[in-house]
């Protein structure tokens, strides 16, 4: 994480964004053979995705829900790229998923797994970072000063609202949404 940026910033992202939350829960600390391989599986996948610019992964944040939960917030540019990675036989995810399922059957509940996927349309999210390094979506897509999009959350959401006609209510921009970064 970099140095704090003084002032109020917001994420530079303007288009649809996919937020993917994935994690594990250690149900039994006494069974590291069940949960340690699961904990070790994510970093190589993140490294693989980070190396490939067209992968669709914009960025991620590793988080700890002390003491039992480890999880990752991932930001993707499309659900299609997320699903393609998940099902690609030649990528790190498929073998890791197969091994996890085998350990899950053998471990009898010693480790838990979860994920959630949110497809968030343009205009349906906003962010603010005050005296923070780039973080979360802002780290994934860059940041811009809040004043460019409005001082209040309601202003930032209104600025990004695109109505069915394809024209923004606020500034008359055309198109099905604002361009992705």
Essential attributes:
181 residues, alpha+beta, 7 strands, 28% strand, elongated
Describe this entry's structure for a reader.
The structure is a single chain. The protein is α+β, with helices and mostly antiparallel strands and 181 residues long. 32% of the residues lie in helices and 28% in strands. It has 5 helices and 7 strands, in the order ββαββααββαβα. It has helices at 32-51, 79-87, 93-107, 136-141, 153-160; strands at 5-11, 17-26, 57-65, 69-76, 111-120, 129-132, 143-145. The protein has a 4-stranded antiparallel sheet. Strands 6-1-7 form a 3-stranded antiparallel sheet. A hairpin with a 3-residue loop joins strand 3 (57-65) and strand 4 (69-76). Helix 1 (32-51) packs antiparallel against helix 3 (93-107). The protein is elongated and about 55 Å long.
Mean of residue pLDDT values: 87
Overall shape: elongated
> What structural category do the secondary elements indicate?
alpha+beta
Ends distance: 21 Å
Spatial strand arrangement across the major sheet: 3-4-2-5
Number-wise, the strands total: 7
Strand content: 25-35%
**Compute the gyration radius: what is it?**
19 Å
Q: Helix fraction?
A: 25-40%
Order of helices and strands: EEHEEHHEEHEH
Number of contiguous helices:
5
Summarize the structure.
The chain has 181 residues and is of the alpha+beta class. The protein contains five helices and seven strands. The model is unreliable at 162-181 (pLDDT under 50).
